[in-house]
C-alpha cells in the first residue's frame, strides 16, 4: 500500500495548476444562479420567539415570587 506522503510528492506539480479565466466565470455564474434569496421572515420569527421566551420567564418569575410570599 503506497504511503500518502509519496502520493503527494509524486503529484505535487498538480497542486499548482490554475484553472482558466473561463472556468472561473462559469463557476461564478453557477453560484449566482443557485444562491437563495435572503429570508427576512426567519430572523423576524426568531426575534419573536426570543421575546416570547423572555415574557414567559418573567411571568414564571412573577408567579413564583407571588406564591412564595403568601
What would a concise description of this structure say?
This protein has 70 residues and is mainly α. It has one domain (4-68).
Helix and strand run:
HHH
Rg measurement, Å = 29 Å
What number of structural domains do the residues give?
A: 1
Q: Helix count?
A: 3
Q: Which percent range fits the helix content?
A: over 70%
**Mean of residue pLDDT?**
84
Class from secondary-structure proportions: mainly alpha
Unreliable segments of 5+ consecutive residues? none
List keywords for this structure.
3 helices, mainly alpha, 70 residues
Can you put this structure into words, describing what you see?
This protein has 70 residues and is mostly helical. The protein has one domain (4-68). 71% of the residues lie in helices and 0% in strands. It has 3 helices and no strands. The chain is elongated. The N and C termini lie far apart (78 Å). The model has no long low-confidence stretch (mean pLDDT 84).
Amino acid at each position: 500500500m503506497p504511503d500518502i506522503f509519496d502520493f503527494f510528492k509524486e503529484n505535487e506539480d498538480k497542486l499548482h495548476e490554475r484553472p482558466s479565466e473561463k472556468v472561473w466565470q462559469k463557476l461564478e455564474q453557477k453560484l449566482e444562479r443557485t444562491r437563495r434569496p435572503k429570508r427576512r421572515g426567519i430572523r423576524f420569527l426568531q426575534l419573536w420567539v426570543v421575546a416570547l421566551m423572555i415574557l414567559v420567564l418573567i411571568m414564571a418569575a412573577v408567579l413564583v415570587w407571588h406564591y412564595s410570599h403568601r
